[in-house]
Every structure is written in structure tokens, then in C-alpha cells.
Amino acid sequence: MSEALLDIKDLTIEFGSGSQPLRVVDNISFAVSLGETVGIVGESGSGKSMTALSVLRLVPEAARVSGQIIFEGRDLLKLPKREMPAIRGKEIGMIFQEPMSSLNPLMTIGDQIDEAIRLHEDIPAPERRKRVLALLRLVGMPDPENRLSAYPDQFSGGMRQRVMAAIAMACNPKLLIADEPTTALDVTIQAQVLAMMLDIRARFNSSILLITHDLGVVAEICERVVVMYAGRILEDADARSLFSNARHPYTQGLLRSVPTLNDTRKRLYQIPGSVPPAGTIKAGCPFRPRCSVRMERCAVEMPPLRTYDPGHRVACWATAEAAA
Amino acid sequence: MARYLFFRLLDMVPTVFLVLTMVFIAMRILPGDPALVALGPNADGGQLEAFREKMGLNEPLGLQYVTFLGNAVRFDFGHSLMSDVPIGTLIANNLPHTIYLTIASVVLGLVMGIPFGVYAATQRNKLPDSALRIYSLIGYAIPDFYLAAVLLIVFSLNLGWFPINGEGSGFWDGLHHIFLPALTLAMLKSAFLGRLTRTSLLEVLGRDYVRTARAKGARESRVIYRHALRNAMLPLSTGIGISILATLSGSVAIELVFNRPGIGRLLINAIQERDYPVIQAGVMMFAFFVILVNLAMDIVYLIADPRIRMKS
């Protein structure tokens, strides 16, 4: 495996104070290598978006973040606050989930992309304009010359997400974080945006950290997958072995819940129960209440992430017992 | 855009018409005989009759109404009963002072209120935020005439920094004279606008596009002034409109306390002297002022917000 570009170690994010803080991300560790595309999969409330935001230190002010987020050898969490803007947009670009509300309604598309360049690079306006046009072409915007002076409200969700991608890629960042980039879009537009991301990856050779709840999206573009549940990592594997040989009962359940075209069953499988609200699981494995293979030990002690095959980590007592 | 403006102006016609009609009715249903009130109890029958004839009060009501409308449209408000000066002249002499006071107090109020609101929003729940809360509370609670008197006593009578009354002559002297009256209104405006700025800015700071600006690498000052405040100004401009209109009621007291010429003082004097045509004209001026400020605010919205511009 090549050198890690982003190495997250023991990341914990908590809200509230006193003896009972709300822990939305609980002691997670994973890495993204140069040029690698890693997907974080999880349901709403699994802490995946908070994890993504914490890399750029954009979590809400009330959140307490501990652990290490090492990017190119520097711990971003230890960096003085005033040094973060130089990293945001320049070294790490980010695309958000809500294309409809993530662009400033009072600024033209051209100005918003241009700003992303101007904030980090001192180049004359005509050259910036050329770069903006090139970016718009890259993200598949038709007729970019005439779109520069348009406002976000004149665009559809898919087009706005393309503009967001152009902003994120404006300074050719080493890492692109995409937080549910396709969730708010129609299925056909989703496919277009995914194709665009594959295109971006091919041209820039950027690493991508993709946050999603959609296993289809993961299968499409990710090389490695981190499965999160209630703030913890339950499984971390390369995409191929995850889809062919999922070891955690939660991941297995997720894969069984994906509809297929030649499915003859009347009802789609679903994992019983729902994700526990953050902070309600005090001890043991957070998936235990919904798990079909739970054991007594699961209620007492959170299973550690154990490496099985090279690069395949699973946090489950039942898996450990089966392997032993 | 031109089309929108045309229809917006067309929209004003019924409003103006309604205002004129209400003024006409109000003046006619007031108790008492205008002639008797105007000439006093010592006037004899002949004088009263001559007065009614002169003012057209003997005409049928419908004809009076039409004449009234016709004169109003031509900005002919008749003559003052007390001084016999044409009302157009009275307004021309007084209106500029009120407009001047309005502009000075609004500019000062914005300069004081908006930065205070921004500072409070960025220091939420800290000392500056509490300071703004207390300042606003006092601003909401204190009557304008009282604040005017306090400022007058402190800065003019005791410290002697500012003239006690009058409007001054020349630009700089005028500015010296207008400072305290404008400050009085501006303090009340900034209490309102500061609070409003804080609220709208906090709301905008939670928006997704503000997060996008931060994710691009914009520094906090740029995030606030270039992205957030511009968006917060939209709801704020409605508040500024309200605040401009509040100058009208404010000017009545302020012009009296500081003994400045202006529409407010003209109106108060006219009411004291039962100078009906002047009251009528003064009320209409205030109504037109409200209509014009509303129009101006609509145009500001149109210029500032591309979403509204696109729709119209």
C-alpha cells in the first residue's frame, strides 16, 4: 500500500459538556492513500458527515474534536486556526450534500469559482477566467462562456453540483472530500455526477474521500470502504472483498438490503430496528440490539477492529469467534 | 426591469387615490364648523359666509371632492389660514430640513447599528452581545423626546459642544446643528437595526453557502462581510425602510425639542392653530413619503437580489 495522504487516528467528536457528552464519532482510525478513493458508508446519524467536516475543521463550534488528523505529515487538529484557510480549498477541496443551498445566491457562478482560485493563487484576472472556463468544461457544464454571469437560481441541482465540483477542484487539491454529492439528485443526474467524479479523479489523480449511504455509489467508484455505525467503524476493507466477503453482520445486512433487478423475493430484506440515537449506547457494540448473531459479550465490551485478511478490518465478536 | 418599475408605479395610483380620499373624508367629518374654528367665535355671519364661499365649503360635497382631487394632483394645496402663505411654499421651505434630518439620522443609525450588530453576532453570547442586548432594550424603551432633551442638556447646555437650536447656515454649520437631533434619532434606529443585523446575520451564518465559503479557504472576515452580510442585508433592508419611516413620527418631537424647521413642526403648529389646509397637506406629505420609501425599498430589493430580478 502506498503512503497515506490522510491518516485519521483515534478521532472522537463530542457535543455538550459535563459528565454525559454526546459522542457522535467514537475513536475511529482510518487512512486515505495517495490517489485512492475511499468511501465512508453509513446510515444517517452514523457520524460520517461529522468525520468529513472535521478534516477541514468545519464542524460546528460547539463540537469538541480529539485525536489526530494527519494530512501530509501535519496534524490538522494541532494547526493554529488561522492557518486552516490556506489548507481549505487549496490542499483539500470539498463538495457538500445540498447543491441547492450550498452556493451563494447573490454571487454569479463565475465569481464563486473565481473566488476559490483568487483566495489561494495570485494570478491575473484573464488567466483566472480561462481557468474558470476550463473547470466548467471539466465538470461537464455546457456552454460555459454564457454561464459565468448566471446566478445559482438559474441552475438545476445537478448543474449546481457541477459548479460545486468546479469550486472544489479550482486549485487542484490533493484530496477531494465529497459529502453525499449525489444524495439530493435524481437518479439519472446521480449517474452523471458520478461519471464527472470519475473523470476528475482520472485527470487530477486526487485522492477522494466519499461520504455516502448508497452502496451502489460505493461499488461504482470506491477502492476501499469504511463502514460506520453509530459513530464507530465496524468494517474497513477494499471494495472488492467487502462486496464479495463482508464479514460484519451489519455490512452483510446492508448488502442484502440492496435491491437487484433479478430479485424474485416479494419483499426487500431490511435490518430490523433502527439506528440508536447518538449517546444512547453506553457500553458494548452499538449494533447489538439489531444484530442476529449477538452474544453476551457484545453487551459488555465493544469489539476492537481486528485485521483478518490484509487490509480487511472488522469489529465483531461473532466474526472473531467464527475465525478462531 | 423597466416593465416591473412601470407596473410598480402604476400600483401606486390606487394607494395615492385612497390616501387623498381618506384625508378628504377625515377633514369633513371632524366636529365643528371649519369657518367658525378658523375665524374664531367673534366672527359675524357675513364673515363666516364669505369664508365658506372662499374655501368652497358651500359647494356640493361631490364637487368639493373633485376639486380637492384636482388640486392635489397639481400639488395645489391652497393657502394657510393663519398666514395666507401658499402651502406649496410652506412645504418647499420645510420639507428639505426634514429630508436632511432623515438622511443624516439614517446614515448615522446605519453606521452605528450595523457594525454593532455584526460584532455582537460574531461574539455571540459574549460581552459585546450582551452589551447590544442592553443597548437595544434601552433604545426600544426610551421615548425620543426624552432622549433628545437629555442629549440637549448634556451636550448643549452643560458642555456647550453643540448649538441649542436652529438649523444653522452653510454646510458645516448645518452639520454642526443637525448632529444632536440626528444622533437622537440615530441612537433609536441603531438600537433597532443593531438587533436586526445580529439576528439576520446569525441566521445567514448557519447557511450552507457560508460553509462553502469557509471550505474554499475564505478567512472569517471575508466570510462575514462578503458572503454573509450581503445576504443578511436583504431582510435588513426591510428594517431600514421601517426605520426611515419611523423618522417621520420622530421628526415631530425632535424638530420641536431642537426648534428646527421641518414638516413635523409645521404639522404640530398647524394642529395647534387649527390650520386645516396645512394639516391636510402635511398628512398627505407624510403619506406620500411612506409610499415613496416603500417604492424605494422595492427597487433596492430588485437591485440587490438576482432572484427577484430574474422573476420580474
TrEMBL record, chain A:
SUPFAM superfamilies: P-loop containing nucleoside triphosphate hydrolases (SSF52540). The keyword Membrane applies. Residues 6-255 form the ABC transporter domain. It comes from the Bacteria. One of its GO terms (biological process) is transmembrane transport. Its main location: membrane. It is a peripheral membrane protein. Keywords: ATP-binding, Cell membrane, Membrane, Nucleotide-binding, Transport. It is found in: Cell inner membrane. GO terms for molecular function: ATP binding; ATP hydrolysis activity. SMART domains: AAA. One of its GO terms (cellular component) is plasma membrane. Belongs to the ABC transporter superfamily. This is Peptide ABC transporter ATP-binding protein. It comes from Mesorhizobium helmanticense.
TrEMBL record, chain B:
Keywords: Cell membrane, Membrane, Transmembrane, Transmembrane helix, Transport. GO terms for molecular function: dipeptide transmembrane transporter activity. One of its GO terms (cellular component) is plasma membrane. It holds the Pfam family BPD_transp_1_N. It is a multi-pass membrane protein. It is found in: Cell membrane. The chain crosses the membrane at residues 12-30, 99-122, 134-162, 174-192, 232-258, 278-304. Residues 95-297 form the ABC transmembrane type-1 domain. SUPFAM superfamilies: MetI-like (SSF161098). InterPro entries: BPD_transp_1_N (IPR045621), MetI-like (IPR000515), MetI-like_sf (IPR035906). Its main location: membrane. PANTHER family: DIPEPTIDE TRANSPORT SYSTEM PERMEASE PROTEIN DPPB-RELATED (PTHR43163). Belongs to the binding-protein-dependent transport system permease family. This is ABC transporter permease.
